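Project standup — Tuesday

K.O.: blocked on the structure for the chain from last sprint. Re-posting the sequence here as requested.
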Amino acid sequence: MRNIRTDLAIEAREIFGKGEQSDIPGVRIDVERTEDITITRVAVEEEVGARIMGKAKGNYITLEVPGLKDNDKDLQENVSVALSKEIAKLVKLNDKSVILVVGLGNWNITPDALGPKVVEHLLVTRHIKEYIPDQIDESVRSVCAVAPGVLGITGIETSEIIKGIVDRIKPDVVIAIDALASRKLERVNTTIQIADTGINPGSGVGNNRKQLSKETLGIPVVAIGVPTVVDAATMANDTIDLVLDSMIEGASKDSDFYKMLKDMNRDDKYKLIQEVLHPYYGHLMVTPKEVDRLIEDISVIIADGLNVALHPGVDTKDLGRYIN
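H.V.: unblocked you, prediction finished:
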């Protein structure tokens, strides 16, 4: 279903293939499972695969953790550790590296506030490394962070702000955090995607701005995103499919009614739902009622994962020494 609204590479692949082995040319899949976390690594290696999936060539790592909704602190720490290991695989750093972390999104809208909230919990050290280096551990790298806001607040394109900062401080890598959209409600606020292909700010709320990528900034850009919303039309479409499946089970396979239900085109049905909803709600996105707590929890998880990945002398148990 090409009309389905999703920012997740794992869902883009699911639309075109089933099972864990990729049947998309030029795309390689690896799945690793533990008791609480499923890690799916999607490598888009050829242009043909990129065209089919609608994703740029590169690596997409997805951590699925259904238990994140349960506010389990031990699980949250385990996710931070797993996230730090995956980030370290994509971000190649040395002791002299300078890292710029960008918290994308609108801090006034909770489902879009993930990026700014992550920045609040980061261990930022560039100013200390530059002005009082003897006051900080040598194993701590130079990290700076910014939450540039959105065009509607600043009147400036986010890409212009970030390009100006990059040109001024010359970091070795940019790590951007933003809210995304999923096509499945169960993945909202329980899934983290890491990609080395850059990001389009605002994509999660359907308001794409100019891309942040190696092509636009001149340095590697790693994106970390969490789906915080789901398209209402997609959710309605999936709900209707469940109803149809239930009705089909009770219908005779020889009946005209069964054949009609079985032959319904999903794309046409999705377009119809969009047309019905649009006059009343426009482009409606849905988020869980517990979104405030979930965003706060996930922002700490991502910040802790970044702090451990970016600073070789820090682990999750040491963070209290550095961050109040």
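K.O.: great, moving the ticket to review. The beta strands are 27-33, 38-44, 58-64, 98-103, 142-146, 173-182, 191-195, 221-231, 285-286. The mean pLDDT is 84.
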